[in-house]
Amino acid sequence: MLRSWVLDEESGITMDMVNYGRLLKLLPDKIVNNLEKARLERVGVGPILKAGLGFQETLSSVIVDGTAIASSSAEARLVPALSLPANYLAPGGLPGRTLRMTVRGRITTLTTAATLTYRWRDGATDVFTNTLAASGAVTMDTTVQTATMFKLDCDLVVRAVGSAGTVFVVGDTSTAAAAFTLANATAAFMGSAGSATPATVALDTTAVHYFNWTAQWSLTTAYSIQAHTAIFEAMN
């Protein structure tokens, strides 16, 4: 009976998060805790999907190469922005929404040891404003690299909802085009303060959001980075 009450009538599969939020207010604490643990923990994804109490979906996956960022020191997007509707980050008015972003592509470098900085940006429109996560300045190796692959991964968890909501975002990046140094191993991690100690970021979960994934070279010479795949997923 409970499963039928929170089932999305249109899809017959996914969960009606508004009804789910109401349900949590009615059930005993022990049952609420068990439901939320199953919903939020990855080990609970399979049982939740089978029970019709949740979903995991791909929100965006590019099917063409991103525009190469080449011969420029300006910050630019790796792939087109992803727009999320108002209140998407707070289903049922609850925290815990978890998003995952992965980007893969290639890098070409010269011998002048330019640095590369990655950022996950957020804005009310398709502009680079709020920084959710950024890497440090990763120094490229002085040996020329041609079409060497890179990867970029970040996870976002909503910690508080509403106009004064917060998210925590951490991630990392790697490429064989970077110099193999301790400094680069540190700079490759991504957080709200770059590769320094991460912290929560203020984010209005009731608003529309445009997410951008950007890269920025330190030199204007012929360094290049281009994304080939970019997958953005809702994990719950």
Descriptive report:
By secondary structure, the chain is of the alpha+beta class. It is 17% helix and 36% strand. Strands 1, 2, 5, 9, 10, 11, 12 and 14 form an 8-stranded antiparallel β-sheet that branches. Strand 9 (148-160) and strand 10 form a beta hairpin.
Quick description:
The protein has 236 residues and is of the alpha+beta class. The protein has helices at 2-6, 17-26, 29-40, 45-51, 182-187, and strands spanning 57-61, 69-70, 76-77, 82-84, 98-108, 115-123, 130-134, 138-139, 148-160, 166-175, 189-190, 201-202, 209-217, 224-234. The strands form 2 sheets. Strands 1, 2, 5, 9, 10, 11, 12 and 14 form an 8-stranded antiparallel sheet that branches. Strands 3, 4, 6, 7, 8 and 13 form a 6-stranded antiparallel sheet that branches.
What topology emerges from the helices and strands here?
Blueprint: H1 2-6, H2 17-26, H3 29-40, H4 45-51, E1 57-61, E2 69-70, E3 76-77, E4 82-84, E5 98-108, E6 115-123, E7 130-134, E8 138-139, E9 148-160, E10 166-175, H5 182-187, E11 189-190, E12 201-202, E13 209-217, E14 224-234
Antiparallel strand pairs: 1-14, 2-14, 3-13, 4-13, 5-9, 5-14, 6-7, 6-8, 6-13, 9-10, 10-11, 10-12
What keywords describe this structure?
36% strand; 236 residues; alpha+beta
User: What's the number of structural domains?
Assistant: 2
Q: Which regions are unreliable across 5 or more consecutive residues at pLDDT < 50?
A: none
Structural class: alpha+beta
> Gyration radius, to the nearest Å?
20 Å
- How many helices? 5
